[in-house]
């Protein structure tokens, strides 16, 4: 909060050109002097060199015209609506309802059914004295092999 | 399937007929709703796939990839909004149409039953991607990048067309659901060796395999953000998906045919991870990181064990989300500094602390931190390759160390340290960017709570 106010004040000071010091002050312990600048109130001249750290002229800082920009659009109304659409449909609908849907998927890929069926079959086979599992997948008597070729 | 294809097709008239101020809102909104409906595909059976019609089916392998594809479109739209803001209206709509067309082709690729239909859609995805890279990329190198991208993939996939037509003539059908029950063991002969190579090379180029990966750094770096996102997240996985489908027809010669490619991938993943340590270009680092992760997926698919398939599928989804997020983060840097050089915009943690939190999460998932799904995928692959051959654990372990090294190198260079004086003027993070990162990260974190949906058909 304080940072925001401080930033706005500095911005105002920079644009309005308020002098940093309004009275002359001399230090008693050293020879430091703070004096109002003779250039106070005059706008600084346009820089003759362009430095790399200056923002590109074609770069548009969306925060300049709209300090509350969400980054979607220059027009504040469209910007706010876009933000609302993304948050509502993206988070509240897809992520929330979607994860609820995924969390409550019934027996994905029949894993729970497979466990129940296995336990049921084991119980049946143990009760009837049958082996729990046959090593042959298919009944060998039903397999018809091709004739041996000499 | 029409419940996904028709709404996606209708996104096109939506872009062209919307009011000027509403194009992004409308498309983002409706693509988010389409991604919600994609979750219906998760109603998978244990013994069969969801067979929608004679043309479309989806099983546990294509479902997570489809959900990822449909989730990525709104994210791509959000990521592109800023760099397209200066373009005129027709170009914006054209860009969005290219993204929608790509989405449409990708949906049809992942659900295709008939392998020739799969091939046609596989090739068709090249066209919108090429247009996005060459038309909206930022540097002059984008033309070369588009050329490499197009011709590498085309050269690899032409033999695949010949092989598919041959299979159609010999087996009688290319319908994948029938083919998986009709397939005969492929005897060892010279012609079958070439047949194996013909089937696999297209997907090897797409993954990409280490020796054929030259197109990837170029294409990923020169593409605009939406292009990089879709390339890294989905188009690479087309190769993995295709390989997992086509290997059904190629047994048992895969046992020995796969050796050179497994060696190339094992070596390649270390090589590309090491190259990442020497990169100055941020996007190039992320691109090589993609090659490294996909090399793991190639190894997993070629050794063909149940655990390796589960690891491959999990890795594909995890890498899709992580890589896309890293590209979005790199783009947020690029939009401020207009340079991809990492050291140019460093010390960002003091200037953009929330974005630094997203950088941290993305880097942590990139280096496969537990309990993320990245780790689940990598761990399954490491375990299955260890069981295939004990020595691979040395290479896998070395790869995980180097992956951690370059992920942390990227994080520390961009976020930590003293920031340079020439980036004092960067604007704070937009809500759009933070929303974009969280929309990448939240599904990733939620999946670590319920990874069974991304573990593929052998779960």
TrEMBL record, chain A:
Which stretches of sequence are listed as region Disordered?
A: 36-73
Q: Which UniProt keywords apply?
A: Electron transport, Membrane, Mitochondrion, Mitochondrion inner membrane, Respiratory chain, Transit peptide, Transmembrane, Transmembrane helix, Transport
Does this entry carry the keyword NAD? no
- Key word Electron transport present: yes
Its subcellular locations are: Mitochondrion inner membrane
Give the way it sits in the membrane: Single-pass membrane protein
**Spans traversing the lipid bilayer:** 85-106
The UniProt entry, under Pfam families, shows:
ESSS
> Which InterPro entries does the UniProt record give?
NADH_UbQ_OxRdtase_ESSS_su
- Basic and acidic residues: compositionally biased ranges: 62-73
UniProt GO cellular component terms = mitochondrial inner membrane
Cited function = Accessory subunit of the mitochondrial membrane respiratory chain NADH dehydrogenase (Complex I), that is believed not to be involved in catalysis. Complex I functions in the transfer of electrons from NADH to the respiratory chain. The immediate electron acceptor for the enzyme is believed to be ubiquinone.
Summary of subunit composition and partner proteins: Complex I is composed of 45 different subunits. Interacts with BCAP31.
User: What family, per the record?
Assistant: Belongs to the complex I NDUFB11 subunit family.
Protein name in UniProt: NADH dehydrogenase [ubiquinone] 1 beta subcomplex subunit 11, mitochondrial
Q: What organism is listed for this UniProt entry? A: Ovis aries (Sheep)
Automatic annotation (TrEMBL), chain B:
* GO molecular-function term, one example from the UniProt record: ubiquinone binding
Pfam families hit by this protein: Oxidored_q5_N, Proton_antipo_M
The answer on whether this UniProt entry bears the keyword Hydrolase reads no
Q: Which GO terms describe its cellular component?
A: mitochondrial membrane
Q: How does it sit in the membrane?
A: Multi-pass membrane protein
Keyword terms of this UniProt record? Electron transport, Membrane, Mitochondrion, NAD, Respiratory chain, Translocase, Transmembrane, Transmembrane helix, Transport, Ubiquinone
Q: Name one GO biological process term.
A: electron transport coupled proton transport
NADH:quinone oxidoreductase/Mrp antiporter transmembrane domain residues: 112-402
Segments traversing the membrane: 21-42, 54-73, 94-110, 116-133, 145-167, 194-216, 223-244, 256-277, 284-303, 309-330, 351-369, 389-412
Please give the chief subcellular localization of this protein.
mitochondrion
Q: Give every NADH:ubiquinone oxidoreductase chain 4 N-terminal domain span.
A: 1-109
Keyword Transport carried by entry: yes
Q: Which InterPro entries match?
A: NADH4_N, NADH_Q_OxRdtase_chainM/4, NADH_UbQ_OxRdtase, ND/Mrp_TM
Localization, UniProt: Mitochondrion membrane
**What are its E.C. numbers?**
7.1.1.2
Q: Give the catalytic activity.
A: a ubiquinone + NADH + 5 H(+)(in) = a ubiquinol + NAD(+) + 4 H(+)(out)
Q: Which family does it belong to?
A: Belongs to the complex I subunit 4 family.
Quaternary organization: Core subunit of respiratory chain NADH dehydrogenase (Complex I) which is composed of 45 different subunits.
- Its biological purpose: Core subunit of the mitochondrial membrane respiratory chain NADH dehydrogenase (Complex I) which catalyzes electron transfer from NADH through the respiratory chain, using ubiquinone as an electron acceptor. Essential for the catalytic activity and assembly of complex I.
User: Can you say what this protein is called?
Assistant: NADH-ubiquinone oxidoreductase chain 4
Species for this entry: Ovis orientalis
């Amino acid at each position: 909060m304080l940072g925001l106010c401080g930033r706005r004040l500095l911005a105002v000071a920079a644009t309005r050109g308020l002098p940093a010091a309004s009275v002359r002050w001399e230090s008693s312990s050293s020879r430091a002097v703070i004096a109002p600048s003779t250039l106070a109130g005059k706008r600084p001249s346009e820089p003759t060199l362009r430095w790399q750290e200056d923002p590109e002229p074609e770069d548009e800082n969306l925060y300049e015209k709209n300090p509350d920009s969400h980054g979607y659009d220059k027009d504040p109304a469209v910007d706010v609506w876009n933000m609302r659409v993304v948050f509502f449909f993206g988070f509240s609908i897809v992520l929330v309802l979607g994860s609820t849907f995924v969390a409550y998927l019934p027996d994905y890929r029949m894993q729970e059914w497979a466990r129940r069926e296995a336990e049921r079959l084991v119980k049946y086979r143990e009760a009837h004295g049958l082996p729990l599992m046959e090593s042959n997948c298919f009944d060998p008597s039903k397999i018809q092999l091709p004739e041996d070729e000499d | 399937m029409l419940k996904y294809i028709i709404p996606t097709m209708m996104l096109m008239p939506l872009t062209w007929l919307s009011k000027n101020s509403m194009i992004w809102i409308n498309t983002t909104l409706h693509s988010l709703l389409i991604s919600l409906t994609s979750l219906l595909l998760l109603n998978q059976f244990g013994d069969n796939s969801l067979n929608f019609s004679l043309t479309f089916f989806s099983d546990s392998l294509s479902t997570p990839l489809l959900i990822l594809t449909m989730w990525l479109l709104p994210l791509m739209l959000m990521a592109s909004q800023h760099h397209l803001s200066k373009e005129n209206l027709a170009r914006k709509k054209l860009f969005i149409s290219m993204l929608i067309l790509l989405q449409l082709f990708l949906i049809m690729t992942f659900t295709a039953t008939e392998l020739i239909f799969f091939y046609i859609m596989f090739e068709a995805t090249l066209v919108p991607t090429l247009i996005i890279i060459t038309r909206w990329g930022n540097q002059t190198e984008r033309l070369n990048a588009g050329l490499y991208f197009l011709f590498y993939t085309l050269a690899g996939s032409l033999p695949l067309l010949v092989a598919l037509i041959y299979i159609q003539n010999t087996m009688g059908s290319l319908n994948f659901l029938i083919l998986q029950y009709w397939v005969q063991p492929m005897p060892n002969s010279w012609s079958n060796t070439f047949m194996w190579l013909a089937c696999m090379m297209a997907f090897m180029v797409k993954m990409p395999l280490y020796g054929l990966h030259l197109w990837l750094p170029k294409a990923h770096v020169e593409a605009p953000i939406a292009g990089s996102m879709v390339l890294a997240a989905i188009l690479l996985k087309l190769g993995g998906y295709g390989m997992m489908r086509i290997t059904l027809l190629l047994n048992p010669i895969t046992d020995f045919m796969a050796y050179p490619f497994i060696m190339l991938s094992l070596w390649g993943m270390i090589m590309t991870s090491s190259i990442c340590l020497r990169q100055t270009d941020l996007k190039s680092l992320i691109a090589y990181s993609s090659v490294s992760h996909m090399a793991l997926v190639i190894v997993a698919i070629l050794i063909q064990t149940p655990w390796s398939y589960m690891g491959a599928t999990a890795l594909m989804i995890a890498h899709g989300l992580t890589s896309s997020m890293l590209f979005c983060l790199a783009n947020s840097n690029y939009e401020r500094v207009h340079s991809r050089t990492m050291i140019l915009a460093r010390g960002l943690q003091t200037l953009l602390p929330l974005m630094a939190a997203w950088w941290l999460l993305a880097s942590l998932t990139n280096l496969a931190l537990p309990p993320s799904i990245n780790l689940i995928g990598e761990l399954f692959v490491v375990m299955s390759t260890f069981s295939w051959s004990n020595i691979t654990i040395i290479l896998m372990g070395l790869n995980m160390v180097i992956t951690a090294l370059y992920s942390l190198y990227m994080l520390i260079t961009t976020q930590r340290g003293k920031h340079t004086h020439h980036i004092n003027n960067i604007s704070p993070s937009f809500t759009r960017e933070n929303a974009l990162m969280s929309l990448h990260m939240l599904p990733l974190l939620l999946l670590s709570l319920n990874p069974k949906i991304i573990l593929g058909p052998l779960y």
